[in-house]
Amino acid sequence: MSSGPTHTAPAVLISEVGPRDGLQSVKSTMPTADKLRWIDALHAAGLREIEVASFVPARLLPQMADAADVVRHAVQLPGLAVMALVPNRKGAQAALEAGAHKLTMPVSASHAHSLANVRKTPTEMVEEVRAIAQLRTELAPGAGLEVGISTAFGCTLQGLVPEDDVIRLAVQCVEAGADDVGLSDTVGHANPAQVRRLFRRLRTEIGGHAGAAHMHNTRGLGIANCLAAWDEGVRTFDASLGGLGGCPYAPGASGNVVTEDLVFMFEAMGVATGIDIPRLVAARAPLMAGLPGEPVYGMTAEAGLPLGFVPGTSLQA
To answer: What's the whole-model pTM score?
Structure first.
């Protein structure tokens, strides 16, 4: 068992979204000091990309009222790429002024979800991507800009989402200035065959601009869907410590993929993540201290590591 982050060059990037996606989905508001301790613990475990906040009006998401303070703290952590979700140009400007290294934008393939989530149509959000890309060029040309296509695999409000709509929207976002575009299973409708098919189409259409897989575990298929995405060449995966999170504007959208379980899967396969599993499990303590009584999930934390487990080495039967 290792005593610190592994030194093998990571083969996958695990992007921790708990401090944003997780915290905005619970009723309680984690105190800022607890957020900072949690982010510090995630960084100490070896995570090198963390989505730490969402720049939205505090009246809508009071859990994110301290977004600028959280970003200003996180950017001081060495080697950490600090991400912030921004739904519009105003939020993007505030995030860049706070020092965020990368902006991520939710652009929903479902018309109904887009209106519920950001009060704009998908077409209007593409124009928002264009405006933010221009703002990024003006204020912080070194900052990244990624788009997550929300409800890419289905929507609780609209139902089926045509795959052609998803791919067309991804192409439009790249043309508008996004560096990369990933696919999000916002409401947990996806299955592995669908994930393979859609990511294959995405990579065919936008090549190196194809981005992360953001899966939810609503129906227990989150890890299976991540493995399907890996098979199609995806190398960046969003996950949330303890499975915290969902979407407050998508009924029934529960449970992000559990970071600890995803890291264990890859490390057990011999795929290096650069993350130390015992330290990752230990990062649950500040999370639970900041949100007392909030349920956390995950099988790896409960079961522990197998006897003789060596990170980044494929387990043999």
So the answer is: 0.93
pLDDT for 253 equals: 45
Sign of CA dihedral 200, 202, 205, 211: negative
pLDDT tens sequence across 112-128: 888 887 888 999 999 99
Q: Could you say which of 155, 173, 226, 247 is catalytic?
A: 247
Q: Indicate the pLDDT class of residue 32, thresholds 50, 70 and 90.
A: very high
Cα-Cα-Cα-Cα dihedral sign, residues 282, 104, 14, 237: positive
CB atoms within 10 A of CB 300: 19
Q: Do the Cβ atoms of 262 and 223 come closer than 8 Å? A: yes
Q: Is the confidence at residue 7, as pLDDT, over 90?
A: no
Residues 284/242, Cβ–Cβ less than 8 Å? yes
Give me the count of residues in the chain.
317
Residues sharing a CB contact under 8 Å with residue 279, sequence separation 6 or more, in sequence order: 4, 5, 41, 44, 45, 46
247 is known as an active-site residue: yes
259-281 b/e (C-beta count within 10 Å ≥ 16 → b): bbbbbbbbbbbebbbbbbbebbb
**Class of 13-303 per CATH?**
alpha beta
CA distance between the termini of the chain: 19
Summarised one tens digit per residue, pLDDT across range 193-235 is 999 999 999 999 999 999 999 999 988 999 999 999 999 999 9
Domain boundaries, the chain: 13-303
Q: How far is CA 133 from CA 105, 143, 173, in A?
A: 11, 10, 10
